[in-house]
């Protein structure tokens, strides 16, 4: 494990354990609320695995926090400047594409800023997020195909699309050149128990 991955894995482990115990939840309770297996949660809390973006989304939703909250260092500062190259890559495509979380905020609202790149032919399918979650994407290069509720939307460079992300959606590069975009995710400030949805 590289130092960066090890630090992120340790941060996630500490935050998941602290959030769970602060609520008085057992591992079984968190597993039920998040839809993540108890075995995986044990691995995460012991810092023995680097969870996927999908797993982090489910855990963050259960706690009512952003993914960024699970990844943040112990100390928060009033002003924070960070390098894009230091941001955690939470998705990697087979052809070199990636999705990285540039920054997230939890107070007063839950907002995440992402950078995504897709090589020709790459795609990323995202599960439904917490009810009420919205995503705003601005395409900088190429043409993105976004599928929401079974309908394709082509978004060319220089255009912006926003949509309800509380349903399954897929980002796709059907073109012959790379796609680069920035995305803002706005997440409701509430816990989500997947067992009741």
From TrEMBL:
Entry annotated with the keyword Chloroplast: no
The chain positions of domain HTH cro/C1-type read 16-70
Keywords in alphabetical order: DNA-binding, Transcription, Transcription regulation
Q: Do you know which SMART domains this protein is assigned to? A: HTH_XRE (SM00530)
Per its record, what are the GO molecular function terms? DNA binding; DNA-binding transcription factor activity
PROSITE patterns xref list = HTH_CROC1
This protein's GO CC annotations: cytosol
Looking up InterPro entries in the UniProt record yields: Cro/C1-type_HTH (IPR001387), Cupin_2 (IPR013096), Lambda_DNA-bd_dom_sf (IPR010982), RmlC-like_jellyroll (IPR014710), RmlC_Cupin_sf (IPR011051), TransReg_Diox_bact_type (IPR050807)
Answer whether the UniProt record assigns the keyword Glycoprotein to this protein.
no
- Name of this chain's protein: Transcriptional regulator
Lineage start: Bacteria, Bacillati, Actinomycetota, Actinomycetes, Micromonosporales
